[in-house]
Design brief:
Blueprint lengths: L1 H21 L19 H14 L1 H10 L19 H9 L5 E14 L12 E14 L1 E8 L5 E12 L2 E12 L2 E13 L3 E10 L2 E14 L2 E12 L10 E12 L3 E10 L26 E20 L3 E17 L1 E16 L3 E12 L4 E11 L1
């Protein structure tokens, strides 16, 4: 009860300070059981505010006169900057390419899913290790540091120079990891081209004293209720110690097919010839018992999910700071092929939540039956990015 009271007082204090600073007039509305975290209901709140304002127009005019605030009843002409490129603006937001004219420092905290600058972002593996770091941004500079554990024997750094051209960035990456007596390191430099629907990158990398030419790209396409995403990386040896036939690749693909209002069909595909010891190793989407075998080279993984999502009319709140928006129930069939095929079937539940209404994270779990081992497996999953 004390915690709930503290949260409420902080919300009231912070919101009132903002209102007092930026508002000439305050109109209070009864929003019932709705929360300040229900941002997806903003349209309803605005309509409610307009209705309440209409009732108080005489009082509003009187307050404006007392404060000597002119009331312009004629509609003002809105001037739009003709040079504004909305497509590029959306692209910059999507790929985190915004440039700040002030110093922006933010902490990084990841738990539940592995984050690595050399691995793909489309599918992330489950991880019980806390990762933390910091982001430093100013102007064209974007610096990210990430570590894990308490011994600081793991460090990843990414430096991005934004705006080499309007659609081109220069990205440097560094990885350092020490396990017992074994040292694993890698660094690279890429040029990355951005489009709203795809990206293309090319560069060079040295990983564990092997030199590679790196080519990669992503795409994100929509056709009505169909969303198609993909990500690919190709590392071609460029030193005399390895041949071109030793090139390594990872390709991942995800499709979301909307079926009616609440159902979706979600096929996944991963094709790779990397193994788990590579810095750029493929993600594991196979959820059966033989996950170690799914980490070997030259394999194909697939997954087919049927997802039912229920969105609450208004969010459910826990501890005054966690918001539950919707719940998903899904059935899946996973396969991987390495020499021979293995299959697993299962069912799971996932909850989409928000921390203070602005930091999304998910929590859920699933049970799976491995047809090869004829055994059951259960797992809880958490994906927290702060």
């Amino acid at each position: 009860r004390a915690w709930t009271r503290f949260i409420n007082l902080q919300k009231e204090k912070n919101s009132q300070a903002i209102i007092d600073r930026f508002s000439d007039i305050t109109i209070n509305c009864d929003v019932g059981d709705y929360s300040f975290m229900d941002y997806h209901l903003a349209k309803d709140f605005i309509a409610l505010g307009y209705e309440e304002a209409k009732k108080q127009i005489p009082d509003i005019k009187h307050i404006l006169e007392e404060k000597k605030i002119p009331l312009d009843e004629q509609q003002k002409k809105i001037y739009v900057n003709q040079d504004l490129n909305l497509t590029k603006t959306f692209s910059d937001i999507k790929y985190q390419r915004l440039q700040y004219d002030f110093t922006r420092i933010k902490p990084l905290v990841y738990f539940g899913k592995e984050h690595s600058i050399f691995k793909q972002d489309l599918f992330r593996e489950e991880s019980a290790i806390l990762q933390y770091g910091i982001i430093f941004q100013r102007g064209s500079m974007d610096l990210r540091l990430l570590t894990r554990g308490k011994n600081f024997d793991y460090l990843e750094t990414q430096f991005k120079f934004i705006g080499l051209t309007p659609s081109l960035d220069l990205i440097g990456r560094l990885h350092f990891e020490e396990k017992e007596t074994r040292l694993r390191s890698g660094y690279g430099l890429d040029l990355k081209y951005y489009n709203l629907y795809y990206t293309i990158s090319f560069g060079w990398a040295e990983i564990n004293k092997n030199n590679y030419l790196h080519n990669g790209g992503t795409f994100d396409l929509n056709w009505g209720k169909i969303n198609l995403k993909g990500e690919g990386d190709l590392y071609t040896p460029s030193s005399g110690q390895q041949e071109v036939s030793d090139c390594q690749y990872v390709y991942s693909q995800f499709v979301n097919i909307g079926l009616g209002k609440n159902f979706a069909l979600q096929p996944k595909l991963v094709v790779s010839n990397t193994d788990k010891n590579d810095l750029f190793s493929h993600p594991i989407v196979y959820r059966g018992l033989e996950q170690e075998l799914a980490a070997q080279k030259n394999l194909v993984q697939t997954s087919l999910e049927l997802d039912y999502k229920y969105r609450f009319p208004y969010s459910l709140e826990f501890f005054q700071c966690i918001q539950l928006k919707d719940v998903s129930w899904y059935q899946f069939v996973d396969t991987y092929y390495h020499i021979e095929a293995s299959y697993a079937v299962g069912s799971g539940v996932a909850c989409d939540l928000n921390l203070l209404g602005i930091k999304p994270f998910s929590f859920g779990g699933y049970v799976v039956y491995d047809l090869g081992d004829t055994s059951w497996r259960g797992s809880l999953s958490l994906d927290l990015s702060f």
